Amino acid sequence: MQTLTQHWLIPKNRHVRIDLDLPPETPEGEADVVLIIESCSIPKDTSLDDLIGCLRDSKTFEGDSIETQRRLRDEWS
Is the pTM above the cut of 0.85? Predict the structure, then answer.
């Protein structure tokens, strides 16, 4: 299973077309795709100091931090 994360701006009409370039290691054939919509609005008066530690419990960044960095970097190369 792969997890892909993209940041989108949802328009007023709530209409979004999805066009994804999948990583090469994605197998061909049938797949179940799950779309999870999670609000990520940050108040305009938020400073970077307010964001420290906000990804601590994120499944994307769990595990070995060096391995996570390599995995994220390799997804875009």
Answer: no
